[in-house]
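input
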Amino acid sequence: MSELPPDLPRLRTVVTYLRAELGRAERALSTAEERESLAARRRPRAEPPAWLIERGIGAGRLPVRLHAGGCWDAGKRCSPLSGEEARRALTEGVPACPHCRPDAALGMPE
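output
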């Protein structure tokens, strides 16, 4: 819209029209957001990795503990491992989580 009309009745008409269009746009946005939210809830969650290694804080970030993939005690400093890497970590002395017991699941009790 390049120029607005100078008189009051036509300005009110333009404002009424624009409010109606804004309402339509907001309803369409709300519908699209609800649809996206529903689609996100229907998507299957990614399968957690089978094994996690928890690393310490600091420059070296040495391994602190080994966890099973779904362990509730796994912290934010974890990265996924393969089964072979998890076995190697246990043989190298990385302690197993006492809650999820990955050593027992891997067939390597202490």
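quick obs: The chain has a mean pLDDT of 90.
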